[in-house]
Design a protein that fits this description.
Elements: H1 3-27, E1 39-44, E2 47-50, H2 56-75, H3 98-110, H4 116-136, H5 140-143, H6 147-160, H7 162-165, H8 189-198, E3 200-204, H9 214-227, H10 234-244, H11 249-252, H12 278-287, E4 289-293, H13 302-316
Antiparallel strand pairs: 1-2, 3-4
Main location: membrane
Keywords: Cell inner membrane, Cell membrane, Coiled coil, Electron transport, Heme, Hydrogen ion transport, Ion transport, Iron, Membrane, Metal-binding, Oxidoreductase, Repeat, Respiratory chain, Transmembrane, Transmembrane helix, Transport
Binding site for heme c 1: 161, 164-165, 293
Amino acid sequence: MSNFWSIWITVLTIVVIVGCIVILRVMSKNNTGVEEGESMGHSFDGIEELNNPLPKWWSYMFYITIVFGIVYLVMYPGLGNYKGLFGWTSSNQSVRSLDESKAAVEAAKAENRLSQYDREVAHADEKYGPIFAAYLATPLEELVKNEEALKVGGRLFLQNCAQCHGSDARGSKGFPNLTDNAWLYGGELADIKTSLMNGRNGMMPPKGGLPIEDSEIKGLAEYVVKLSGGEHDAALAGQGQASYMKGCFACHGMDGTGNKFMGAPNLTDNAWLYGGSRGAIEESIKYGRAGVMPAWKDILGEEKVHVLTAYVYSLSNK
């Protein structure tokens, strides 16, 4: 926070507190010229206004609130850049990467000034660490049958994966549906765990990096439609097959069934990551596609990834 805004917030806060004290003091005194309990000379609908003072309990409660506010602002951060007597922070808000976050936590430990968030994470690790350690020691083939573990995996999914894949795991354009059996990198337990641990960086360059002319794209898209079993123009698809043989088969296979080791999609099913219309297919061919899933091993740790793997596998293997 800049010095200007720090001073602005500090001054404004102090003015408000002092203003509350002044108003309370003024309103606690009888400045009306009318004795307490006497009529103010106003009446409406048979109701007469009397000059009654503020209730003592209300005034005392207000004073206590003001004192509490002052003590709180002195002990904890709240006045601009002032850190408070305790040096308490809610989190390491200046960090911009996972490495910076880890470094900030270690520095805070060394100086005995952990943030509230760090304390809560440490408490959670102490409480739930043994549970996740036990899950990690359980083979995935057994873990997928553990209902409690799958519930934990479901919560981890909602917290970390639902933003892209959706709360129902059915994905959206550019984000895979995890409830079917169309896996770019393989759908076995080991494959899924590898994807989660190390992340994936899927990329098809424009026109596959091949000497394909723009005039060939329509025919090539028609051939892809044929591969997926859709209604197609046979003559145009035949032209597209010739373009396909220029090198598309190197990733997608001669029969178009894809290659999980390269993350090349199966073109013979009806699972389309970026849309299966002719327009969407032509767009994918012409401009290419790039999709990235981050590696979760440093974010969640292998224990949680192990449980998450079992849950993701269960989505398409009931």
